[in-house]
Amino acid sequence: MYTTQSKNTPVNNLKLFGNLRVLIIAAFLTALSGAVGKVFSIEVTPFARIGIENLPIVMAGIWFGPFVGAAVGFGADYFGCFLKGYAPNPVTTVGFIAIGFVSGLVSMYMFRSNKTLAVILADLAGHIVGSMVIKTIGLYYLYGGQYPITLMFAWRAAVYTGIVIVESTLIILLMKNKAFSKQIEKVCSNGKTRSNA
Predict the structure, then answer these.
(1) Minimal CB count within 10 Å: which of 37, 66, 80, 193?
(2) Domain encompassing residue 104
(3) Mean of pLDDT values over 107-127
């Protein structure tokens, strides 16, 4: 987790679901991802588009951990599909969930002393698992094998490499703002002061 909680454990991460402030921010990130992803994106190919729909999901994973990140990913996919008027693809829904979960898990346990590296690796790992592997498989079956899966992987890997650079940069810039980081800390601690024991 990007915040400086002294006890980063899955159980403590689950407790964030009882934090009203976290739930409000998670709901906002869910709506933002759903709206931005389905409305403001550029379709490069039928199976790859350029957009920042996953940015709010990655933010939720990094700021609030894997479980909140997964919940935001799930909600974002369903909300986005509702906005566009089509049924969700269960495999791509799992991809959205994986982006939030993996980015949260990586940021919680890896490179906790180097926050910049933690954000980059969390974002990259979330996209490798969720966007490049799971969603590509889901889209392959959605299009009935119309496109070679190796071509789909190659296109999506190129697109998401660029997206990871943009997303990571935006998150790092936000987190370098001390006032913003302090507010995220407050939200996670439910307004209580926390010591770095």
Answers:
(1) 193
(2) 10-188
(3) 88
- Is residue 81 in some structural domain? yes
| Statement: residue 50 has pLDDT above 90 | no
The arithmetic mean of pLDDT across residues 30-36, rounded, is: 86
Residues 6 or more apart whose CB falls under 8 angstroms from that of 59 comprise: 29, 171
Q: Tell me the C-alpha distance between 20 and 112, whole Å.
A: 26
Within 127-177, residue ranges assigned H as helices are 135-142, 149-176
pLDDT value, residue 75: 93
Q: Which of 5, 6, 8 is nearest to 106 (CA)?
A: 8
Structurally, how many domains does the chain consist of? 1
The model's pTM is: 0.84
CATH number of the structural domain spanning residue 57: 1.10.1760.20
CA 37 to chain centre: 12
